[in-house]
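Researcher: Quick test of sequence recovery. Tokens follow.
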């Protein structure tokens, strides 16, 4: 389906490359992993379909592509590069890139195009892997379903955390793929379209969560609390000096995001990942790099943390740069403490704290 807004995608495409991948994976996966498949018969053999699943790693997409009866066209992140470790595989398979957190009409139209041709679209409604069960369902899945008049099939994956590493180490990880019941296409009527789409997206996410094995939910966070304190070594730090400090502490306790900015984007922020002593210049370089990246990708934090908290991270970056500059000018060492407290699904509580000493150079 050609439109004036997007390059059309012919479905199916890359038949040889994708066919060889599917054939090889169907032969290898049973030997390398314990794969438990339930409800594959519920996947329609023809007609437009959206496969929607939970997402904590790369293996959900691998299982979806391998065991679906027809070729799956994926909607994937286009706002940051993929992990260098497997980016070449992703590029060889191909996907529809979406600029997450920023307006991207092209990705929506290309997705609808695939479905209008009777294809299968693979999508992960939470929109990322940084905080399972604590991210709102993104409207994209419902919007695409509504425009293409395509039903959605929820899938709950289990055993995905660390599965790729274990698989490569020949540890035969146990991976589960539970296919649920079809959810009709999002309705196009109603007075408030956005509210209707949000309700449909939440229905999909709830159906997915119901299919995830209980052991995978045990570590889900029911509540989160973050605090940032700054000061000088030997003094009681103050939590009120940095505007947006709690949001920045959230960022410091989000290893997936820190790793993505360092490994995928290439920002020099290793000092933020490794608590301890850091030179003032390196600390400011890391903060300035993240702030500069937001000029290129302004939706990076607002997409992942929500609008209010995402903007607070940006405020904190500016405040911390000024704070560090003052310390450097005065020749003073500085102390920064980021704390986090979580209540988990299984009733446990976790507390974490990371501390940096910023020394002048």
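Model:
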């Amino acid at each position: 389906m050609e439109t004036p807004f997007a390059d059309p995608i012919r479905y199916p495409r890359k038949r040889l490359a994708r066919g060889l991948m599917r054939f090889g994976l169907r032969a290898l996966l049973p030997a390398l992993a314990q794969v438990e498949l339930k409800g594959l018969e519920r996947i329609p053999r023809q007609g437009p379909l959206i496969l929607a699943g939970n997402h904590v790693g790369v293996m959900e997409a691998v299982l979806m592509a391998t065991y679906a009866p027809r070729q799956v066209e994926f909607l994937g992140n286009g706002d940051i590069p993929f992990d260098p470790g497997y980016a070449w595989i992703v590029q060889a398979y191909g996907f529809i890139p979406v600029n997450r957190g920023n307006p991207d009409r092209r990705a929506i139209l290309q997705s609808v195009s695939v479905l209008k041709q009777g294809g299968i679209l693979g999508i992960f409604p939470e929109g990322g892997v940084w905080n399972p069960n604590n991210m709102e369902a993104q409207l994209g899945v419902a919007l695409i379903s509504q425009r293409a008049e395509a039903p959605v099939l929820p899938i709950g994956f289990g055993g995905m955390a660390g599965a790729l590493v274990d698989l490569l180490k020949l540890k035969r990880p146990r991976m589960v793929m539970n296919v649920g019941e079809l959810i009709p296409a999002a309705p196009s009527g109603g007075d408030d379209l956005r509210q209707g789409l949000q309700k449909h997206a939440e229905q999909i996410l709830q159906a997915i969560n119901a299919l995830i094995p209980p052991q995978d939910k045990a570590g889900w966070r029911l509540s989160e609390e973050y605090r940032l304190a700054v000061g000088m070594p030997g003094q009681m730090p103050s939590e009120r000096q940095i505007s947006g400090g709690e949001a920045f502490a959230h960022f410091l306790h989000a290893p997936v995001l820190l790793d993505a900015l360092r490994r995928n984007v290439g920002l020099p922020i290793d000092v933020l990942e490794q608590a301890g002593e850091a030179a003032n210049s390196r600390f400011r370089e890391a903060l300035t790099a993240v702030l500069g990246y937001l000029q290129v990708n302004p939706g990076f934090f607002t997409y992942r943390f929500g609008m209010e908290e995402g903007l607070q991270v940006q405020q904190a970056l500016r405040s911390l740069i000024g704070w560090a500059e003052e310390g450097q000018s005065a020749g003073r060492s500085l102390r920064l403490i980021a704390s986090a407290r979580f209540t988990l699904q299984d009733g446990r509580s976790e507390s974490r704290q990371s501390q940096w000493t910023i020394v002048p150079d």
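Confidence is low (pLDDT under 50) at residues 1-5.
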